[in-house]
Amino acid sequence: MSTSTVRRPPMTLTPRWRKLVLVVHVVSSLGWLGITMVNAVLTITSVFTDDPRRQHAAILMMEQIGGYLLLPVSMTALVSGIVLGLGTKWGLIRYKWVAIKLVLTLIAAGLTLFSLLPGIRELAAAAESTLDGVFVEAGRRVDGFYPIIVSTTMYVIMTVLSVFKPGGKTPYGRRVTATRVRGRQPA
User: Fold this and answer.
1) Were 25 and a residue from 5, 80, 97, 168 both cysteine, which residue would form a disulfide, CB within 3.0 to 4.6 Å?
2) Which tens digits make up the pLDDT trace of 146-168?
3) Phi-psi region of 147 (alpha: psi -120 to 50; beta: other; left: phi over 0)
4) Please, what sign has the CA dihedral across residues 52, 55, 59, 61?
């Protein structure tokens, strides 16, 4: 058999590296959720405060916290999750729960990059250009809660998937397992 047709086993992380990447993944995922919870408090303040200065401060803090932390934290969670998938027995698309988490993380990261961050920056620009003592009307809208509700729901679903690991293997995962079992049987 030529070396080009021999299937190499997938690259796996050593236990030490797996634990390190897992810690990075858990911490960044919790950080992502934490930033979302802080933005929830700031959004509540922005929408419901009776003080325009407090509203401006809340909006500007959203930009300071989310604007600087959301992208690196979300990308760290995404990349560390991919590394864990590629470097462990779970794979990226071998098990349904991992594949669903991957899709949800890609969606959440995409929404963060292309919708949430531009929205936060636009709202902060409006706060900076609005006079003291005047409310930022866009900061009074309750639709600012939608990203928080959607992202929190996605994070909770991903956590439940990680804990319970439902759904079994994907068709690809069953094929990979069957191929490995056939390869181990004596001829």
Assistant:
1) 80
2) 999 999 999 999 999 999 999 99
3) alpha
4) positive
**Tokens at 105, concatenated:** 């993380």
DSSP state for residue 31 in the 8-state scheme: H
Least Cα distance to 55 among 5, 149, 156, 130 occurs for: 130
Q: Which two tokens stand for residue 23?
A: 């810690």
The two three-digit tokens of residue 137, written as one number:
């009307």
* pLDDT tens figures, 59-118: 999 999 998 999 999 999 999 999 999 999 999 999 999 999 999 999 999 999 999 999
Residue type, 29: S
Q: Which two tokens stand for residue 59?
A: 């909006």
Rg over alpha carbons for the chain, rounded to the nearest Å, is: 22
Classify residue 152 as exposed, middle or buried by CB count within 10 Å of its CB (0-12, 13-18, 19+): middle
